[in-house]
Amino acid sequence: TGGACAIALGALPSVTFAGNGVALSADARSMLASVAARLRNNPDCRIVVTGYCASSKSEQQRSWDRVNAVINYMVEKEGISSDRLFFNYGQEGGDCNTVDLRAATSDEQGQTTVPAPHPNLRRSK
What is the reported pTM? Predict the structure, then answer.
């Protein structure tokens, strides 16, 4: 069951973004380093990276950018295999400025790469 990984990984943090930004704060990078260490210690576990808000094209793209920022950090800086990180953006029911991490259940299927919804959208300042 997915319970085993949820227990092994423990409570996973949420990453908070400031304003309309997509940059990871020092605190966020530190939290993600801790998550990466737990993933390295539990090689069979995967996590779902979830971003919220999709009521407009800009929100959809920002949600994607933020999930992408978290996943890219985990892959490029922490060496976590991208197939262990499920890409989940534009979901309902969460804080628009937050990306949540949770352990995937053992039978859960997810997409590890998702094309940007609106790649040509210019970010507003």
Answer: 0.93
pLDDT tens digits along 66-98: 999 999 999 999 999 999 999 999 999 999 999
Closest CA to 95 of 14, 21, 30: 14
Chain centroid to CA 12: 11
Query: Please, are residues 52 and 92 in contact by the beta-carbon 8 Å criterion?
Result: yes
52-71 burial, b at 16+ Cβ within 10 Å, e below that, comes to bbbeeeebbbbbbbbbbbbb
Nearest to 47 by CA among 70, 23, 26, 21: 70
DSSP one-letter code for 83: G
